[in-house]
């Protein structure tokens, strides 16, 4: 998701026009339009200010990278060792959960 999409979603979810967001945030309406179209990218602090003016906040956190999805790889490996009938049964069982 781009910063422009994030700004547009927050603004529309808050029921604000670009002009109203401009008034609340103190940012130029034309600049808001450029950010929403991803013509330019706002700084992280400006993005946070815009989202807060819409009543939202930006939650960023760093999480350790654990490499490839080990569980997915294990399921794929298991599936390779199954017959088509066994794979179908497993898929149907998973759907019922």
Features:
mainly alpha; 97 residues
Helix content: 55-70%
**Structure annotation, total helices:** 6
The assigned structural class equals mainly alpha
User: For the CA atoms, what is the radius of gyration?
Assistant: 22 Å
How do the helices and strands follow one another from N- to C-terminus?
A: HHHHHH
Strand count, sense and barrel status of the largest sheet are: none
Distance between the termini: 30 Å
User: What is the mean pLDDT?
Assistant: 89
Number of E-state strands = 0
Which regions are unreliable across 5 or more consecutive residues at pLDDT < 50?
none
Overall body shape: elongated
Q: Strand content of the residues, in percent?
A: under 5%
| Oligomeric composition of the shown chains | single chain
Structural features, described:
The protein is an all-alpha fold. Helix content is 63%, strand content 0%. The chain is built from six helices and no strands. It has helices spanning 3-13, 18-25, 29-36, 44-53, 70-80, 84-96. Helix 1 crosses helix 3 (29-36) and helix 2 crosses helix 3 (29-36). It is elongated and about 60 Å long. The model has no long low-confidence stretch (mean pLDDT 89).
């Amino acid at each position: 998701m781009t910063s422009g999409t994030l700004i547009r979603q927050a603004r529309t979810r808050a029921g604000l026009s670009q002009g109203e967001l401009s008034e609340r945030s103190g940012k130029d309406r034309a600049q808001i339009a450029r950010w929403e179209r991803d013509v330019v990218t706002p700084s992280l602090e400006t993005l946070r200010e815009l989202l807060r003016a819409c009543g939202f906040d930006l939650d960023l956190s760093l999480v350790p990278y654990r490499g490839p999805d080990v569980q997915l790889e294990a399921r794929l490996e298991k599936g390779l060792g199954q017959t088509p009938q066994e794979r179908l049964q497993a898929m149907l069982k998973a759907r019922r959960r």
